[in-house]
Amino acid sequence: MAAHRQFEELARQLSAIGAVKREMGRILPQDCPPASAGVLTLLDRHGEMRMSQLAELLAIDMSVTSRHVAHVAERGWIEREPDPADKRSRLLRLTPSGREVLEELSARYTATLARYLNDWSDADVGHLNELLARLRTSFGDCRPRAHHDSTTRTPAE
Amino acid sequence: MAAHRQFEELARQLSAIGAVKREMGRILPQDCPPASAGVLTLLDRHGEMRMSQLAELLAIDMSVTSRHVAHVAERGWIEREPDPADKRSRLLRLTPSGREVLEELSARYTATLARYLNDWSDADVGHLNELLARLRTSFGDCRPRAHHDSTTRTPAE
DNA sequence: TATTGTTATACTCTATAACTATA
DNA sequence: TATAGTTATAGAGTATAACAATA
Q: Tell me, what's the pLDDT at A146?
């Protein structure tokens, strides 16, 4: 197990990494906020899925997911078909238009990272990716749980 | 330079790491949102400073910094004294009460990370810290710049 | 005239709760 | 009764612009 000091430093790094996330968000195309980019990316990687599955992958509440999905659906980037197996559910699927947006996203993301990280080796980026993935796994299901005790916050961010 | 594929993956990891940040935010004490914790932590690490310096360290606009600082000042966690060298500026300084909050923050952060990352070695956490610090350095000054072109967003997050 | 900091406004993101429709 | 999804409401975070005070 790691030292107290390392944990304090990690808390600080996590707090500060928001600046990088914001910078990445700034390069997105018009009408495509970071949340929309996340929805499209996950549908591309995992294929057709239901709202609840998407919310699980995004690690956010389904109510929030619903709005993000509505945003991309209104722009024609995804389709929402009723699930024949359960009429309460809707199956989400990328449209050709959505795939075009994804192409643009990919181009902008990689161009931006290639610019900022021009002195990073492939192994460096790979290692960071692995550690971030492991960090998320270690935190497991981070979505809000019911019954918080009254001494802790239940914030929004 | 790293491969296209690695950059796409990093973009995805950065997008998803928000879940971990939110979980860390949930364990903060009442009346102490993540932004307040950030202000207190930076004042502790770097000592007394001006608004503009704090905004620089937080990598957010000074207008936002002003509000975060007001929040912690209203709770008596910092003092704001006029800078004798420049009457436009105010020097920010932790109070004993602010240091007590910091003690609590440190305890909660480390306890939470120790729980989630119980199978991480000291070297693992250290390596992640190094890579995150390097990532932030590579992005340099990520705060918003004037004169964006019209094809990119200028979001809030 | 330029800079430091504050305030007003708007937008993004998220959580909780109430609601509808279906299982 | 329980579950999938939507909508309304509230709160946190940030950016831009306008403003006040000082350099």
A: 35
